[in-house]
TrEMBL record:
It comes from Dehalogenimonas alkenigignens. The keyword Cytoplasm applies. Keywords: Cytoplasm. This is Uncharacterized protein involved in formate dehydrogenase formation. GO terms for biological process: protein maturation.
Amino acid sequence: MSASFYQRCRAELQRYEAEKAFPEGYTGLNKEIMEIQESAREQLGPTLRLSEAALNNLKEGQIALTGQSVPIPVSVFRPAALKLAAAFSRVAGQPFPVEKIFALPGSSSDDWHTLAEDLLAGRLDLAELAEGSGYNAETIAYFLHSLLVPFYEHQSEPYRQMLMDKEIAWNRGFCPVCGSPARYGVYYGEKGFRKLYCGLCRTEWPFPRHMCPHCENPEMASIRSFTIGGDQAHAAEVCDHCQSYLKATDERQLRRECIAAVEDLATPGIDLTAAGQGLSRPA
């Protein structure tokens, strides 16, 4: 992911900051998270070469990284974790329990891929990590996902364009590279085609418009959407079959190209409304 990507993200956050009232510290924290991610990504070096094993996985309908571990060197991971913990601590006004994370099994090794695999597989006890810290399990999960982004985006870079160009077909609602649930949706082009976005490795891929990405329910009658405050460019797409939702931006309504990573951050009101309706967001 190039430096220009992060520069564009920060510029878009500033645009939304001027347009909307965010909670105190919200925009500043997310800008700082992106700066930490950008620094970590730069330390990982140039884009990797295409992996034949990953390409074969995709061609066979499997997640690209199946059978592979994402390298997470401690020399990059630990300083990034400390900076991120300091940012969270400043905003929350209380120390973030980063030492608990450093004490997890496998922390003495030079590679933290086990932590990532445990988190994505649901094997980490987030409630235990949060206990007594003043933070909840959701915030711990957000911290860890934010920390892992640069390592996963580095791994996914060789495959992104070919997926968007449909050189390799992928018609599932989860990420073709790392397997994470879709985080966001974007309607683009004159015809409003839909692409999904992975919040962990930043991969985007085309996906049918009238299908739930979480349970892959194709029944249009059970899929609805809602907007808030008269904002027609941003919506929640709700599946009444699995009671999940996906936030989405329509670039035709927005009247500019958007960055899904920023659109997600710019729409906290939709999440609050969805939570009030008892809806879940698998990502």
